[in-house]
Every structure is written in structure tokens, then in C-alpha cells.
Design goal:
Two copies of one chain form a homodimer.
Chain A (H helix, E strand, L loop, with lengths): L2 E3 H4 L8 E4 L7 E7 L4 E5 L5 E8 L2 E5 L2 E5 L3 E5 L5 E4 L6 E8 L2 H15 L1
Antiparallel strand pairs in A: 2-3, 3-10, 4-9, 5-8, 5-10, 6-7, 6-9
Chain lengths: 120, 120
Amino acid sequence: MEVKTLKDLVRFDPEKKQKIAVFDSPQMYYDLYTLMPGQLQKPFVFKKADKIIYLLEGKLQVTIAGETATLEPGQAVRVPAGAVNSMKNEGPENVVALVVVAPHPECAERKKRREQAEMG
Amino acid sequence: MEVKTLKDLVRFDPEKKQKIAVFDSPQMYYDLYTLMPGQLQKPFVFKKADKIIYLLEGKLQVTIAGETATLEPGQAVRVPAGAVNSMKNEGPENVVALVVVAPHPECAERKKRREQAEMG
């Protein structure tokens, strides 16, 4: 049985945001994101997968489809598939967030290619 | 943008464990489970979906494929697709857990039926 203590996995890098896999699941990403003050994730989109961000520590500014909110610890937000999203730590504290993406983006990509092959 | 404060959603029922949807995602279940002392989830299996349990409050006894562990707050465990699993709050505190299941079990079920139809 794979029991993980999330805080033991936390690490920060002054160079850039860290994405730390908690579990290696074939069905989803289940990751910790860590951002030091000023660090960010640039605008990004998963075409087929939903992403849910749950904030554990710090304050995190999230922009989804042009709308911006600042998450507090204990708050979560859903990024629907297809929505452009970005995040930034406006500081002063470090940020730790639990980020789930499903279905696993690589699986969605394989499924898309298979569907295109079937249609083509 | 759907920002949710998870603790505002928490409720307990002396009759049985509660399963509280945080988001209505087509891609996954993203739920709070709440268990008062003595409450449990009976052995259960998702054939196609992974489940990840992250404990927020209390102590939770989890059994996966015959192996048992007690989670503390901040710990998480993965239940691979196909593994029989159950949980119990041995008390004395209330339990709040964040439970993610992906892909969405109903989608997996539809996919399975489609695959069976294609093979049949």
C-alpha cells in the first residue's frame, strides 16, 4: 500500500515552480505544485482533461478563461477542459497546492489519436 | 469560476458516512467523505478507476487488497483500479477526507459497454 505524507515531498526551487508527482497513476496526475514568491505557471490548456487545484499553503492567484481569483488555504477551484489557465504566487509566502488532472493527459491524447484514426 | 471552500461543505450524519461532491466534473469524482466515529465504507471496488484518498481531519483506517493502514491528516493513499477497499473511522475524532476517483466511474462504465459492443 502506497501511503504518502505530502509535506515530506515538498521542495522548492528558486529557479522555477516545481511539479512533484505524489502517485504514479495511469488514470490521473496527482501532483504537488510549489511556487516561491513571484513564481508562476504560464497560460496553459488541457484540451480533454479537467484540472482541480486545492490550495494547501500560501496564497495563489489563479486565472481561468480570463477571470482571476486568489485562493486561500482550504479552497479549491476547477479548471474545465479547454479553459486557458495560469497561476502566480504574488507572495510573500511560499505556495503548496494539490493539483489533480484527469483523465491522465497522455491517455486522453492517445484516445484522441485513436478516435482520429477511426474517423480517418 | 467555481471557487469552493471545502470546510464550508462539511456535514456529518449520525446515520451514515457522507459523500459530498465538491465539483461536478465529467472527468472525475472530487468528493469529501465524512465519517463519524464508528462509521465505515464497506468493501468496494472500482474496476476501471483509480481512487486517491487524502486525509484532512481525524484518523482513518483504510484496507486495500487485504492490507490495512491508518492515515493521519496530510497523508494520502492510492487505491488502484480493481483493488477491493474499505475504510473505517475507529474514532474518537470525526474524519474528513478528500477522495478523487478518475476517470469518472460512469464514463468508464460507458466506455466499457462501448468496447464490449465493438467486440461483440
